[in-house]
Design brief:
This protein is of the alpha/beta class. The protein is 33% helix and 18% strand. It has four domains: 1-45, no CATH class; 50-101, no CATH class; 111-149 and 307-364 and 432-501, FAD/NAD(P)-binding domain; 189-293, no CATH class. The two termini are 54 Å apart. The relative contact order is 0.13.
Length: 507
């Protein structure tokens, strides 16, 4: 490979060659190294050893003559060493010039990925696509994939919570489908049980179902209030309750939103939920149970082991360190201590809660977890046809149930159903959608140095980040690395929520 030497030229297309002695020079004095390599200012020299050098050269040439003849040198014979013949080898000439030619190697840029969930694996594969990256993944658990990894229970494949692939990005779907073949399942439906009506309705809420409700006239009159100019409406809402009531009225809010979000986020009042990432104009109710999904691709891996092959494929050329974590990390200098070994990297990608990288210096970022219960039923199917999820918006402790066979298409006389209960002690699954928590997360993300990224649900501290977002963030991150820039440690994010942007503009 061609190289350029001498004075460093940043626009030179070829890699810059640095000798071992020059590396030592940098370690001794970085400023002196810079003046020499960049500015061409030579180091003060020492007088040459002309006599020594000339003698050495003449002796080597004399021995080379007998090396070519493959005979012992007369000097060696006179001293009883005639059995020693100068060694001959095709590479001998190269070896004799070791101080000039040396052992050459190309520095590969290095990347550290903290966390081996879907986001971490997606980042690893983007480094693989960019080529010639030395990537290390450190994961505190015993396997890659985290909650997206497929396990088995009662003879059924499942993930920790439903992990179907739902995306509006065609390129993201095509990318994943090219690695692990996917089965589209756009026929899926979500149902919500409304106890007051003793009935199930499609979710998202749609006008076709609203017209069937026993209190339709009341609902319609509440929705008509939006036409009144004095009505506050969703665009001026300060919390989740005001937003939904301003969009669809109090009755639908009570039926579908109020109790569900109270137990989902373990709050006593939906007014406490003061961030909401929807249209500023409010919720638009469409016609028909499928209308809300027309613009999205829904899919699930065809393979029985789900996404597991992706984790292996995406990290096959990375150094994966399981059951480990960093004990020290310095984002500014891009160093980390892993298993007592201090290492330096060119890029650091974080996928865990960002406060853990700064010893929680601004305070702890809180998460909600969930208790996950698995139940096997003695019937081939439990839910109606095409129904994947059942949501419960009443006083029950659990939020939803999923029938896994609807995704996996697993053949069995029994069926596995998962039930979720939000919990304070169930792990770090849900970042909190409250302004104080989101602003705290942004405080940590603002501390990220150039060349350090934070992606994934935990890494961005955003509940709305799903599998497709992890892939898309990794893709954008790779583009940013290739272009040499970093606009935001969270790739592709202009701001987190409209409400937070407003708060920022007031300061």
């Amino acid at each position: 490979m061609a190289r350029h030497r001498g004075t460093y030229k940043p626009d030179h297309p070829e890699p810059y060659e640095v000798s071992r002695s020059q590396i030592q020079s940098f370690m001794n004095c970085p400023a002196c190294f810079w003046m020499n390599r960049v500015k061409g200012i030579k180091f003060p020299g020492m007088p040459g050893f002309l006599l020594n050098t000339a003698t050495d050269t003449l002796l080597k040439k004399d021995f080379d003559k007998y090396r070519e003849l493959q005979k012992p040198h007369p000097f060696m014979e006179r001293h009883g060493l005639g059995h020693l013949v100068p060694y001959k080898h095709d590479d001998f000439e190269t070896w004799t010039k070791a101080l000039i030619l040396g052992l050459r190697t190309m520095h590969e840029p290095s990347g550290l990925i903290i966390g081996g969930g879907f986001a971490g694996c997606a980042a690893a594969h983007q480094f693989e696509i960019m080529k010639d990256w030395d990537v290390t993944i450190v994961e505190k658990g015993p396997f890659l994939g985290a909650g997206v990894r497929t396990n088995w229970f009662g003879g059924h494949p499942y993930t920790f919570g439903p992990r179907h692939f739902l995306t509006p990005y065609e390129n993201v779907y095509s990318y994943l489908n090219s690695i692990i073949p996917m089965r589209k399942c756009n026929e899926h439906e979500f149902l919500t049980y409304v106890e007051s009506d003793n009935d199930f309705y499609a979710y998202p809420i749609n006008m076709s179902d609203v017209k069937k409700m026993p209190d339709y006239e009341k609902i319609q009159s509440e929705m008509n209030l939006k036409k009144n100019e004095k009505f506050k409406g969703a665009k001026n809402a300060l919390n989740l309750e005001e937003y939904w009531i301003g969009s669809v009225g109090e009755t639908l809010f009570k039926k579908f939103i109020d109790n569900y979000n109270k137990k989902m986020w373990l709050v006593d009042d939906c007014k406490d939920i003061d961030t909401f990432n929807w249209s500023p104009k409010g919720v638009a109710l469409k016609d028909g149970p499928r209308a809300a999904w027309d613009s999205a691709i829904s899919a699930y891996p065809i393979a029985a082991n789900g996404y597991n092959d992706y984790f292996d494929f995406s990290t096959k050329n990375s150094k994966v360190i399981l059951n480990s974590s960093f004990s020290e990390i310095d984002l500014k200098n891009k160093t980390a201590k892993i298993n007592s070994e201090k290492m330096k990297f060119d890029i650091i990608v974080n996928t865990i809660s960002p406060d853990l990288l700064f010893d929680q210096c601004y305070g702890k970022l809180n998460f909600l977890g969930r208790e996950f219960h698995k139940m096997v039923f003695p019937t081939e199917h439990v839910f109606p046809e095409n129904v994947y999820f059942l949501y419960y918006a009443n006083d029950e402790k659990f939020t939803r149930m999923v029938e896994y066979k609807k995704f996996t298409k697993h053949k069995s006389k029994t069926s596995l159903v998962g039930l979720e209960i939000p919990s304070l002690n169930g792990g770090k699954h849900y970042p909190l959608p409250f302004q104080k928590d989101q602003l705290l997360a942004k405080k940590y993300l603002d501390e990220f140095s150039d060349g350090c990224f934070s992606i994934g649900r935990a890494g961005t501290y955003l509940y709305g980040v799903d599998i497709d977002d992890c892939i898309r963030q990794a893709m954008i991150m790779a583009d940013m690395i290739k272009s040499g820039g970093q606009d935001n440690p969270v790739p592709g994010e202009e701001y987190r929520f409209p409400e937070l942007q407003k708060l920022k503009s007031r300061k």
